[in-house]
Amino acid sequence: MSTPTPEVYEQGKGMDAHNQVMREIRSRKEASYDPHEPTRVWLDEDNTPDGVKRSLTIILNTGGCRWARAGGCTMCGYVAESVDGGSVSHDALMDQIDVCLAHEADNADEPATLIKIYTSGSFLDEREVGAETRRAIAETFADRERIVVESLPDFVDREKIADFTQYGIDTDVAIGLETATDRVRHDCVNKYFDFADFEDACAEAAAADAEADAEPDVDRGASAGIKAYLLMKPPFLAESEAVEDMISSIERCADVEGCHTVSMNPCNVQRYTMVDDLYFNDGYRPPWLWSVAHVLEETAEVDAIVVSDPVGHGSDRGPHNCKECDDLVQKAIKDFDLRQDPSVFEQVSCECETTWETVMELETSYNMPLVR
Ligand code: SF4
Ligand SMILES: [Zn+2]
User: Can you tell me the distance from the alpha carbon of 129 to that of 135, in angstroms, rounded to the nearest whole number?
Assistant: First the structure.
């Protein structure tokens, strides 16, 4: 680490202030949850480097993110759904997996080929999911084609990835990078790591990929890679700043070896967050869906799959346009996710595009939101 500069010093202060506010906001929650039940589970389909796959998405309840307990990210309310007071045992986590398998058996004709496991934290953090549980979960899904697990970059290493690739499962680690710009990640999102940590995690995945290719005991070498999750429009950025930040972030991620997919997701207003407080006091508007479409169009040529899954589209607390065109634009975004063809956006238009263009031109960080 080099000698602290005034900039680093100020960022440190900013984080302390954010953490303090977020700790206070999170302390308002009262919910508690059963450690034997997953937070959520659902079936869907997803675009992967091997084409579109049927997916089973699992949100494991692991006691919540440690960073969130320190205060954590300004937009993230997931911790409000976590088990109070700490860790969840191996047996309880395996019970959660059983509930998910039962849900799949009841609702799908055949097993999903893609498994996605999120924890509202870091699946690869052994204080959240121990090595025994990680290995048991890998074994449970050994017959599937691909798995995605979520983690902060600090916990990504080639040995943990090899727990999955040893069975021939293509393995991706989803990292909530949020943005490639360190200043925005620190000051607007309040995430503590740097783009360089993300690059290190990608290098670990690339090494795991190379080792899996050389594995003699499986029919075909499994792949390993990183899926970067980006956050469109964190608090304190005007619409045009958010768009510019996303375009450069997608370009920078796509250039990193080991990162094959970028999922760019518009911020929505979750309960018990700083974004929620700002929104309530007229200081935040989620991004326009036109902005999402614009970023996808502008980055269609990069060397990575780029997708977006706007949550809560069309609602005040989610990404939205004028309400009239929200479903149409959302559908175009979903089409783009599967086909990666930017011409899908030529087929949608609405009068509110002019309003969006004006917001892009005139909204600044001291007059926002210009339009609700
Ligand atoms: S976004 Fe991720 S790292 Fe940040 S508080 Fe939420 S779960 Fe933790
Ligand atoms: Zn419209």
Answer: 10
Residue 330 CA, ligand 2 centroid: distance in Å: 11
Q: Which domains does the chain have, with CATH numbers?
A: 14-362 (3.20.20.70)
Q: Is the distance from the beta carbon of residue 272 to the nearest atom of ligand 1 less than 6 Å? A: no
Residue 266 phi, psi (nearest 5) = -65, 140
Structure tokens at 246: 């996303």
**pLDDT 10s digits, 314-367:** 999 999 999 999 999 999 999 999 899 999 999 999 999 999 999 999 999 888
The Cα–Cα gap between 244 and 241 comes to: 5
Q: How far is CA 364 from the centre of its chain?
A: 26
Global confidence as pTM: 0.88
pLDDT (tens digit per residue) in 167-222: 999 999 999 999 999 999 999 999 989 999 999 999 999 999 998 877 665 556 79
What separation, in Å, do the N-terminal and C-terminal C-alpha atoms of the chain show? 43
Cβ(329)–Cβ(290) below 8 Å: yes
Residues less than 5 Å from ion ligand 2, measured at CB: 321-322, 324-325, 350, 352
Q: Which of 191, 42, 186 is closest to 117 using CA atoms? A: 42
Q: Of 49, 45, 173, 205, nearest to 113 (Cα)? A: 45
Contacts of 45 (CB under 8 A, 6+ apart): 52, 53, 54, 55, 338
